[in-house]
């Protein structure tokens, strides 16, 4: 017997969110037709011939035009005519015009949402009743299943009317919608997840109180637990289930736009472990849209909340820690870049982002050393193409930064792993074609500053760093002086323009423009100028 899940496969309603699920199908399977030979024969056996010279027209006559005289009736009557006489055509035209004039758009207000909610609740109750009564006979409740599916999709219009969110939540319909995530029919659960994604999407023009009303009702209905439990229920070999995973990730991303909720998601649920597990057990050799989205959501949760970073570093220790897992996922790209403008490129960028914000925490640095992260980054700096090399340099800068107590062992590992030759080699190649961009140079200068700041004064590692600066007749110091002159010139020009713009402005007006002016100074290279000064001061 056909399973009930197979009876209700549908693409679902369109979503208003900026991100779209990519569902591609085989066009050859969409349209099939009989192969017709030039003579019109479809089976190769029958052949029709037409005698030449027969110019008579056959078939039903076309309807007369408005200005065309009506043909005379024949004894067969309207069978061979157009089927509609002039009087009937005028009557039909009149009815069409009346229907158009009498049409009044439905008013969408609180009364409308109450009616919508009542119908939605009735469909849920009816389906539950029939499912319980005819559990072993899907044919008996398939009609109610289709009605319920249609009612779920009808809720999509609410995303265009966020002013009704609070009323919808008061009716208790949000609780009912969330409860459908555990429905026996996976397709209905997926449709419910998609509607929740639409209602919570950041593109919906909802006020904070309206968004809070519907989201708080969803959380009270145990939305997070149901979302997480559904991941194990979905089979991503099936396109509909892939869509369910995608929209589940979308709901979590929408909720994480609120920092308090992001912390709740990361610390009160198992989502961090789930995301890391999904990344480390990707079955396909290619990175799918959902895999990239998983990496992006992990990076968002870690960037949004320090508590999430602490939870990731302290709770994910067995069988391997989270830092080690992320480094293993990046290892295949140590000598190659992912395809440009692909999901895989976004995936790699998200992994680097996740590691970068983790390494700002002192808890991450010992785990990073144990996983041989320094050695992997040095390979990337030597062998990887420019995009990956720039990301690796940014990660190295964050690994060496922070309080000296946690950063000193990382700096010592860099020197001990023969990393000075690699780092200074990148620095001297920076001015050549294909070298680092401005962002890469900024992080490279940050590495130098961290080495000079954290390494003990009389240690062998610090002496090796100083020796690198003075070798070959101080060429590295000379390069630093050139960079300082270059950045000082750019920042000086911007300072003069800002000074001119500030003349005649009041103190309040200058204060209003202070952020804009600081941004312009930074764009001109203020941070790099300050870092070069720090390095030269240490030397």
From TrEMBL:
<keyword id="KW-0677">Repeat</keyword>
<feature type="region of interest" description="Disordered">
    <location>
        <begin position="1"/>
        <end position="84"/>
    </location>
</feature>
<keyword id="KW-0597">Phosphoprotein</keyword>
<keyword id="KW-0539">Nucleus</keyword>
<dbReference type="GO" id="GO:0005681">
    <property type="term" value="C:spliceosomal complex"/>
</dbReference>
<keyword id="KW-0175">Coiled coil</keyword>
<feature type="compositionally biased region" description="Acidic residues">
    <location>
        <begin position="65"/>
        <end position="76"/>
    </location>
</feature>
<dbReference type="InterPro" id="IPR011989">
    <property type="entry name" value="ARM-like"/>
</dbReference>
<dbReference type="InterPro" id="IPR016024">
    <property type="entry name" value="ARM-type_fold"/>
</dbReference>
<dbReference type="GO" id="GO:0010467">
    <property type="term" value="P:gene expression"/>
</dbReference>
<dbReference type="InterPro" id="IPR039678">
    <property type="entry name" value="CTNNBL1"/>
</dbReference>
<feature type="domain" description="Beta-catenin-like protein 1 N-terminal">
    <location>
        <begin position="87"/>
        <end position="193"/>
    </location>
</feature>
<dbReference type="Pfam" id="PF08216">
    <property type="entry name" value="CTNNBL"/>
</dbReference>
<dbReference type="InterPro" id="IPR013180">
    <property type="entry name" value="CTNNBL1_N"/>
</dbReference>
<protein>
    <submittedName>
        <fullName>DUF1716-domain-containing protein</fullName>
    </submittedName>
</protein>
């Amino acid at each position: 017997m056909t399973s009930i899940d197979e009876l209700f496969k549908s693409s679902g309603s369109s979503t208003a969110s900026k991100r779209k699920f990519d569902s591609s199908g085989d066009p050859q399977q969409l349209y099939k037709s009989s192969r017709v030979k030039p003579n019109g024969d479809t089976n190769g056996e029958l052949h029709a011939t037409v005698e030449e010279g027969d110019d008579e027209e056959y078939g039903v006559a076309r309807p007369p035009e408005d200005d065309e005289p009506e043909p005379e009736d024949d004894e067969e009557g309207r069978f061979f005519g157009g089927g509609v006489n002039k009087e009937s055509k005028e009557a039909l035209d009149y009815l069409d015009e009346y229907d158009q004039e009498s049409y009044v758009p439905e008013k969408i207000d609180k009364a409308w949402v109450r009616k919508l909610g009542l119908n939605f609740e009735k469909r849920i109750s009816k389906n539950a009743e029939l499912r319980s009564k005819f559990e072993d006979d899907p044919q008996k409740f398939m009609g109610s299943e289709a009605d319920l599916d249609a009612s779920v999709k009808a809720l999509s219009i609410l995303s265009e009317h966020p002013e009704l969110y609070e009323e919808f939540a008061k009716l208790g319909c949000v609780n009912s919608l969330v409860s459908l995530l555990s429905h026996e029919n996976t397709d209905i659960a997926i449709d419910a997840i998609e509607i929740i994604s639409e209602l919570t999407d950041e593109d919906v023009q909802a006020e904070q109180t309206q968004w809070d009303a519907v989201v708080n009702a969803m959380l009270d209905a145990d939305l997070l637990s149901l979302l997480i439990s559904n991941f194990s229920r979905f089979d991503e070999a099936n396109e509909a289930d892939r869509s369910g995973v995608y929209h589940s990730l979308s709901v979590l991303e929408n909720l994480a736009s609120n920092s308090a909720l992001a912390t709740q998601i990361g610390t009160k649920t198992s989502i961090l472990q789930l995301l890391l597990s999904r990344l480390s057990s990707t079955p396909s050799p290619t990175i799918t849209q959902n895999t990239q989205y998983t990496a992006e959501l992990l990076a968002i949760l870690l960037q949004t909340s320090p508590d999430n970073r602490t939870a990731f570093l302290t709770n994910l220790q067995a069988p391997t820690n989270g830092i080690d897992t992320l480094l293993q996922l990046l290892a295949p790209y140590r000598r190659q870049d992912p395809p440009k403008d692909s999901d895989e490129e976004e995936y790699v960028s998200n992994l680097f982002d996740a590691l970068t914000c983790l390494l700002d925490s002192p808890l991450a640095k010992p785990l990073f050393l144990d996983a041989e992260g320094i050695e992997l980054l040095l390979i990337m700096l030597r062998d990887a193409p420019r995009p990956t090399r720039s990301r690796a340099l940014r990660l190295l800068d964050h690994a060496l930064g922070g309080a000296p107590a946690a950063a000193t062992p990382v700096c010592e590992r860099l020197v001990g792993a023969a990393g000075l030759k690699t780092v200074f080699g990148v620095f001297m190649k920076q001015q050549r074609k294909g070298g680092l961009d401005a962002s890469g140079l900024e992080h490279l200068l940050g590495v130098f500053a961290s080495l000079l700041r954290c390494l003990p004064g009389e240690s062998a590692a610090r002496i090796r760093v100083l020796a690198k600066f003075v070798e070959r007749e101080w060429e590295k110091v000379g390069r630093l002086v050139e960079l300082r002159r270059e950045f000082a010139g750019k920042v000086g020009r911007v300072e003069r323009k800002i000074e001119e713009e500030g003349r005649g402005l009041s103190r309040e007006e200058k204060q209003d423009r202070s952020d804009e002016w600081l941004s312009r100074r930074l764009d001109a290279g203020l941070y790099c100028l300050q870092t070069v000064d720090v390095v030269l001061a240490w030397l």
